[in-house]
Every structure is written in C-alpha cells, then in structure tokens.
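Lab meeting tomorrow. Look over both lines:
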Amino acid sequence: MPGDMVHHGFYYAYHNMTIQPGILDAVIRAMDLYGDINVMVTEHSMGGTMASFCRLDLVVNHEAQNVQVLTFGQPRIGNAVFASYYSDRMPNTTHITNGHDIVPHLPPYYSWFPQKTYHHFPREVWLSIMQQGMRLVTGNNITDHLVYYGVGLMAKTWGSCKIVMDVRLKEYGGKDVKGNLMLFRNPSASTLRLHSDSDAKSNFS
C-alpha cells in the first residue's frame, strides 16, 4: 500500500523465521481439511509482531477469512498508514498491555512526526489498577512485561517449545513421524499412525 512502512528488523525476522513455512503449511492444511475454520494467532513481546505479520500473510497471501490476533506486550511495528491498513483488513485484532510494560512503547512515538513515527493498530486492552481516577502510563517497567494475568512469560532456561494442554485433549492428539503434534476433531482419527513421510503426505493430500 502506498506510504505504508514497517520496522525492517521485525519484517526481516518474520520472513526469515525457520518455523514460518511450517506454521503457514499447518494452517493451510487444516483449512483444506476442515474448511474455513477459526484461527487464533497469539504471542508475547516480539513474538506479537510475528503473530501480526503471520495473520497479514494468511489473509492477504493465502485468502484466509476467520483469523484473529491476540498479543501480549507487543511493540509497535509500522507507521500510521500501515496501522490504518492493518485495522481495516484485520479487524479482529487485540493487543494487551499490562500496566507500565515498556515494550508496547517501543519503538518510540514522536508526536512531531505523526505520519512517519510508529503506531499501534487498534484494539488495545490495558490492564491496570486505576488510582484516583487518573490514567498515567509511563511505560518504564520491565517486570510488567514479564508477567501477564499472573503468568510468568520469561523462560528460566533455554529449551524447546512445549505445548501444555489439558489431559482430556490427549484422545484428540497424536504425533507424526517427525514428532509434530497433531490434533483432530474426531477422536478416532487420532489413532492413525503415520509410518513414513509418504504416509503423512498422502494423509493430507
């Protein structure tokens, strides 16, 4: 879109993310199998920018319809033109800001360059305790960035990503030959065992 600009580093990170093709492929395969399903893309911090770009990618380049974004502590990623375009094309977007979390205030907003500076696209939900009816957001607290809804979002050690889910969902799940978690609408489908890459491809083709 003419005049829109996004943060080069965030844009480059999304398009060079090693898991990006797998995420898009998984969503596209799910839509091929189940039709126009509801998709929720969610992340925290810089991951929120990746989630926002992922939704844009799914809607603009892959014609997905029912995609929502919910992010926590997301930084700004584009100028006013981009924010307006994004909110028009992707209305079901919510970014949550906890108290005085510093990250949603980055990159900085410069009021004397309103069209050039970074903007958030709507809708923001601000988690805060009102004091004497005043709303003053200083955006200077890293602790507020690391805890949302009482859940610590900072890993204590490096490791692979794990999905924590209710034990009752196990009957709907399984793993393919590469160890990827697969969930099915029909519990009986989870008993499928894919023994080779060719079996996996034929199951989804």
